[in-house]
Amino acid sequence: MGEIPRLLIIAGAVLIVVGLAWPLISKLGLGRLPGDIAIERDGFSFYFPVTTMLLLSGVGTLLFWLFRK
Fold first, then answer.
1. pTM for this predicted structure
2. Are 54 and 32 in contact (CB under 8 A)?
3. Does residue 68 share a domain with residue 50?
């Protein structure tokens, strides 16, 4: 099997696992961490999860580093 089909199968499996675990993930409070930018005005809301993105990026980088070795 080529490299691309295997990557797509792994990505699909990861999405399925995340989808099934979403009720547990939502209880962790990700997306509402200190440092996340939330602006709410009349008829307008803007949300930019800076801290959440940094945390997930760090965890993803660590996992990729561990599985590469």
1. 0.60
2. no
3. yes
